[in-house]
Each structure stands twice: as structure tokens, then as C-alpha cells.
């Protein structure tokens, strides 16, 4: 047994814990289909959001962990529910008026308001694929429309007709009285209007595999349940899909957790084996509200990638999946710096520690080196102090701080410098509030400027931090954090900031003295 497999069998990292639980499913014999199937589902009623990415990223982490502890092949399916009827017009798309006349039609039959694809569903599916491909996920994409209309779902749909009463009994237990009267697991697609109908069944013919119902005008219609003429309500569809594909693992958000017994029960009624589950907590926006793809609140994938790397987003997704996390722009700098801290630690760790390190799971064991000799938070403060508008300005300071660094040898640092300029100008600069120092602070800052001007020792983080620390102590700041808070508020326009000695080493001693003089002269406030 390899050292990594041995470490993985006892690792406390949640992907390995889930992988071990999944492996027990086949401790007696491997799957007859020849592989373990992971699935993620996506509702393309709106643009893909960051929670969708998180679901695929986390599932992939468990998949790769499983491959360490087992020799059974694996496959990941990303399933799009694009046969669903469009129930409302999303608020974040162009030309919304063109969509209104297509309400209740399958998303793959609704025109694309963006004008780039054959349908709105196809557009959103392309968006999803592009996002997933950006991160290098290995997956097979399945369209619900294709799955229904090609006949791949027919066997299970016929079984649903045959066992209609049992599936209905499972569903009716979860419904309110008024809903029970009109509910059916089958949603016919009207042969003339193309709309997905929510109507009660007059008859379900298990032998012929047909349903009979009245449409909105009272006209009686009979349709086969096969061939894409009918789709299943979303809860039965969940369980039926598991049965049809023989899914072994699927994760979903906490908002689905109460439905797990229904999904499992329907899967088993239809002849399948219920998969293993993992329920994660939801992402919240800046106001603590659940992120929604139809309202477009929270941070999108494209927005995150405007200000930080794909790996930093994967790192954020790895952390505490069982805990609800606020997902706003202000979490990005911390995620970037923590990701690189873990990268730097990885090469110093033994195999057990590496198996517990988030970067192993982000990179599936092929972990790169970090060249971030300047933390992202420090780059933001450099951008602020230097008024940087481009990476060339940033590199003029970085080269002095780290003479051996270049954009070519430190590509991650070069990328982060560009992100920092963008992030600073979009989020930090508009909120900066400078103030004038009080008398005690003014005297201390004048002393700091004088000591820096007279300094002829090493220009490094620790030496300069000691100098700044000594000034604050000599001027009676207690606690000393008040001294550093004053420096941040007077010189950087914020209440929190970098390790100030490191900032001086990066920005430059003369430049810092000049910044202090400006702050004292009231040129910043």
C-alpha cells in the first residue's frame, strides 16, 4: 500500500472521509457497470452561479480522494434539467420581454435572449460548460432534453407508469391537501403549445405506457410517457434519474435535505439503489441572503475571476462545506493569501499532513509551488499607497523588495498584482476614509519619519517592524494596536492594514517618509 493511500485511509480531510464512506458501498463487490458514478445537477433557469461551481468542485475533490483509496474507475456526470418549463423570466438577462410569451415552455424551446444560441437552455448550458472547463474539470455533460427525447429515460419512465400508485403515495405524503388534489408525478408537454402542463391525470395506462389528461381548454389528450412527451416533476425526476443512471454519489444544498427520503424512496421504487449523499450549507450574499441564480445576488464565477485566481476560489469552496458562508467580494483577499500559505506549507509537510492540506484536494495531489513573495493583502496596500493603475507600477516596487522576482519567474505574483490593482480600484479606493492625526499620533508619526530617515540598517520586514513597534511603545500607545490603527487610518485610509514593517520594506523607506509627511500635512485626508 502506498504511503498516500495509507494516509488517506485515516485522513480527517472531509473529501477522504466521504470517499471512505462511498467505498463501503462496494466493499463486497465492485459495481456491475464497471465504475463509480458521481453526479451533479444543474437547473438552467438562470445564469450559472458560484454555488453550481462549488458543487462540481467539491464532488471532484471527493472523486479524486476516492481514486486514491480505490482502484475502481470513476465517472462524473453534470446533468442539466433543461427540459424544465421556464416558470418566470430571470431578472438578469437582456430582452426580458421576448421571454414572456414562452413561459412554461421547456428551456431548450425558449429563444435565447442573448441571441447567441439556439435556445435559452442551450445558452445557459454553454455558460455552465465554459465555467467548468475554465477550471479543468473532467466530466460528461448530459442534457435532460436529450436524455428524455432520445429514449435513454424510457425504461424508467415506463416503470414509473407501471408503479405510478407507489410513487404517488410517496409524493402525496409530502404535499399540502390542496396540492394533492391536482398533483401528478408526470408533467405532459402539450403537443400544440409546447408548454409543460401542471394538470392532474385522468388515467395512467401502465400496459400501454400512456397518460390521459385534460389541457387548460378542457380538451382530452393522451400521450406516451416515453420519447420526451412527458417529463417528471422535479422531486420524482431526482430519484428516477438516480435509478436510470445508477448514480452512486450526489451532493446538494441543505435546502434539499428534507427531500432526501423522497428522492431515495422513489429511486428504490423504480428499481434503483439510492446513492450516497453529502449535504452542504448554502452560500449567502453580503446581506446574509441565500444566493440565487435568478436574482443574480452574490458573487458570480466571472466576478471572482476578475479579482483572483481559479485556485483561490477552489480553496474557498474547500473550507467547511457544512458551514454556511458569506460569499461577497471582501472574502477574496483572505482566500488568496490563505491559499498561498497552504501552498508554502505543503512542501514542508509529511504525507499525512499533505493529505489533510486543502491544496492537495484543489490540485488532486499535483501541487505547484507558490511564488507569492508578497501577500495579496500587501499588494492591495501597495496599490493604494502608490496609486497604481497597472502592474508595471506594482513591479517597480516589487523588484526592489524581491530583486530576483520577475513576471516570468513569478507568474502567480504577476497575476495577483494585476488582480490587486483591479480590486483596489473597484472596492478599496471608493471606501477609503483618511483622517488627520491627533496630537499624540502626530508627534509619534513625526518621530517615525525622523527615525526612518536616519535608518541605515537592513531594509527588511523584521528590522523595520521592530523600529515601528519601538516608536509606538516610546510614545505610550497602550495597547500598541492603537498605534498601528492610527497609521492605517491616517496614511492608508482604512482601520486595518498590513504588517507595517513589511509595507515599508515593499513600498520603500523614502516613499513611506513622504507618505507620512503628506498625512501630517493633511494632503491625504
From TrEMBL:
E.C. number: 6.1.1.6
Motif 'HIGH' region in this chain: 44-52
Main enzyme class: ligase
Binding positions (ATP): 293
Superkingdom of origin organism: Bacteria
Localisation: Cytoplasm
Location, primary (coarse class): cytoplasm
Stored PROSITE patterns: AA_TRNA_LIGASE_I (PS00178)
Substrates-to-products reaction catalysed: tRNA(Lys) + L-lysine + ATP = L-lysyl-tRNA(Lys) + AMP + diphosphate
Cited InterPro entries: aa-tRNA-synth_I_codon-bd_sub2, aa-tRNA-synth_I_CS, aa_tRNA-synth_I_cd-bd_sf, Lys-tRNA-ligase, Rossmann-like_a/b/a_fold
The entry's keywords: Aminoacyl-tRNA synthetase, ATP-binding, Cytoplasm, Ligase, Nucleotide-binding, Protein biosynthesis
Ranges in coiled-coil conformation: none
Family named by the database record: Belongs to the class-I aminoacyl-tRNA synthetase family.
Protein name: Lysine--tRNA ligase
Underlying gene: lysS
Amino acid at each position: 500500500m502506498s504511503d498516500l493511500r495509507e494516509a488517506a485511509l485515516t485522513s480527517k480531510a472531509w473529501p477522504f472521509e466521504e470517499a471512505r464512506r462511498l467505498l463501503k458501498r462496494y466493499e463486497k463487490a465492485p459495481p456491475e457497470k464497471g465504475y463509480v458514478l458521481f453526479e451533479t445537477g444543474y437547473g438552467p433557469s438562470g445564469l450559472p452561479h458560484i454555488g453550481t461551481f462549488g458543487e462540481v468542485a467539491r464532488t471532484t475533490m471527493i472523486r479524486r480522494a476516492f481514486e486514491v483509496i480505490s482502484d475502481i474507475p470513476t465517472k462524473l456526470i453534470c446533468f442539466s434539467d433543461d427540459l424544465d418549463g421556464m416558470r418566470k423570466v430571470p431578472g438578469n438577462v437582456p430582452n426580458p420581454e421576448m421571454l414572456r410569451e414562452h413561459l412554461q415552455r421547456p428551456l431548450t424551446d425558449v429563444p435565447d435572449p442573448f441571441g447567441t444560441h439556439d435556445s435559452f437552455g442551450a445558452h445557459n448550458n454553454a455558460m455552465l460548460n465554459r465555467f467548468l472547463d475554465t477550471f479543468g474539470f473532467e466530466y460528461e455533460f448530459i442534457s435532460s432534453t436529450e436524455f428524455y427525447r432520445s429514449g435513454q429515460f424510457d425504461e424508467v419512465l415506463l416503470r414509473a407508469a407501471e408503479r405510478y400508485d407507489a410513487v404517488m403515495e410517496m409524493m402525496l405524503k409530502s404535499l399540502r391537501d390542496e396540492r394533492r388534489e391536482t398533483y401528478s408525478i408526470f408533467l405532459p408537454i402539450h403537443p400544440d403549445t409546447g408548454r409543460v402542463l401542471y394538470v392532474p391525470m385522468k388515467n395512467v395506462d401502465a400496459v400501454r405506457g400512456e397518460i390521459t389528461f385534460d389541457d387548460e381548454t378542457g380538451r382530452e389528450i393522451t400521450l406516451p410517457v416515453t420519447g420526451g412527451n412527458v417529463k417528471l416533476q422535479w422531486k420524482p425526476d431526482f430519484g428516477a434519474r438516480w435509478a436510470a443512471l445508477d448514480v452512486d454519489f450526489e451532493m446538494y444544498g441543505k435546502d434539499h435535505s428534507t427531500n432526501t427520503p423522497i428522492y431515495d424512496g422513489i429511486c428504490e421504487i423504480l428499481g434503483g439503489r439510492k446513492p450516497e449523499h453529502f449535504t452542504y450549507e448554502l452560500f449567502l450574499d453580503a446581506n446574509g441572503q441565500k444566493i440565487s441564480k435568478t436574482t443574480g445576488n452574490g458573487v458570480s464565477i466571472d466576478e471572482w475571476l476578475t479579482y483572483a485566481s481559479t485556485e483561490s476560489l477552489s480553496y474557498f469552496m474547500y473550507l467547511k462545506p457544512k458551514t454556511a458562508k458569506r460569499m461577497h467580494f471582501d472574502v477574496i483577499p483572505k482566500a488568496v493569501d490563505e491559499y498561498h500559505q497552504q501552498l508554502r506549507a505543503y512542501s514542508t509537510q509529511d504525507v499525512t499532513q499533505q493529505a489533510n492540506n486543502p491544496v492537495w484536494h484543489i490540485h488532486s495531489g499535483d501541487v505547484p509551488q507558490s511564488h507569492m513573495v508578497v501577500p495579496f493583502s500587501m499588494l492591495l496596500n501597495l496599490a493604494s499607497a502608490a496609486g497604481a493603475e497597472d502592474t508595471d507600477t506594482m513591479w517597480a516596487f516589487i523588484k526592489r523588495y524581491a530583486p530576483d522576482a520577475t513576471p516570468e519567474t513569478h507568474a502567480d505574483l504577476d497575476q495577483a498584482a494585476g488582480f490587486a490593482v483591479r480590486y483596489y480600484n473597484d472596492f478599496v479606493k471608493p471606501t477609503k476614509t483618511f483622517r488627520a492625526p491627533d496630537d499624540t499620533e502626530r508627534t509619534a508619526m513625526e518621530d517615525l519619519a525622523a527615525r526612518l530617515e536616519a535608518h541605515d540598517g537592513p531594509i527588511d520586514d523584521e528590522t523595520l517592524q521592530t523600529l515601528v513597534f519601538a516608536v509606538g511603545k516610546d510614545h505610550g500607545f497602550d495597547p500598541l494596536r492603537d498605534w498601528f490603527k492610527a497609521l492605517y487610518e491616517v496614511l492608508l485610509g482604512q482601520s486595518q492594514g498590513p504588517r507595517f514593517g513589511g509595507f515599508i520594506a515593499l513600498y520603500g523607506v523614502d516613499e513611506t517618509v513622504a507618505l507620512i509627511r503628506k498625512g501630517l500635512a493633511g494632503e491625504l485626508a
